Write the structure tokens for this entry.
Amino acid sequence: MKNAIIKGFMFILFVSLLAACGSGDANSSAEGNNDSGEKKVLKMATSADFPPFESYDTEGNFVGFDIALAQSIADELGYELEIEDMDFDGLIGSLQAKRVDLVLSGMSATDARKENVDFSTEYHRSGEMFISKTDAGIEDLESLEGKIVGVQLGTIQEEGADELASEYGFEVKKTDDVSILIQEMNSNRIDVAYMDKTVALGYMESQGFAGFDDPTSSSPGMAIAFPKGSAIVEEVNAVLAKFEEDGTLQKLKDEWLAEE
Ligand code: ARG
């Protein structure tokens, strides 16, 4: 794949050099030349710490439902997809600064976020769960008393945990990265991790954690986020509608997401 891109690029360079020589035009340049069939680039940001939505495989490639969905959308619209990994807490800012065109990161389309970014239609709904080691005996909100609950910075769980903490008497510990939360739990620096259910189920399976559903959860579905006023929201929504109808979305869900 990379090789093909490099070869393609060298070919384009070669052809444009030829063209420049042939015309003898001092102004001609390969720069900004888009007639060569090169694809437009779609810049996506994500926080790749959130399997099965976004993470890395053993070779260091991005994988997951959001990655596959973004790639399918880019293919459908004729874009080259470029993915940048960053802290979840920085995603909204990078959209506001228009450093990226879109964010797929298991991001819940909350009203608060809608003040700063535009969202596509929702593509997945997940509840929320509290997960812990099986021997911790944590099975409901009441048993969180005196415990340390870890959340990822900038998430709806950070906000949710802050709201529940005093009522149920637990302490909230915040980290940038969900995989750090899991490490912290395995080394007993936190007792509980609070996160989206689809992701929690994966960790329960892979790490043997116990978990219970958040009875207070009323979070909105996940959606693709764009800079406010972005011109591509509509075309992306049209593709999502098409994927909903022709079964592409369901196929991606079957491939990546566990049943809830
Ligand atoms: N759904 C939650 C939210 O929108 C958490 C998303 C975290 N995503 C991630 N890639 N770490 O706040």
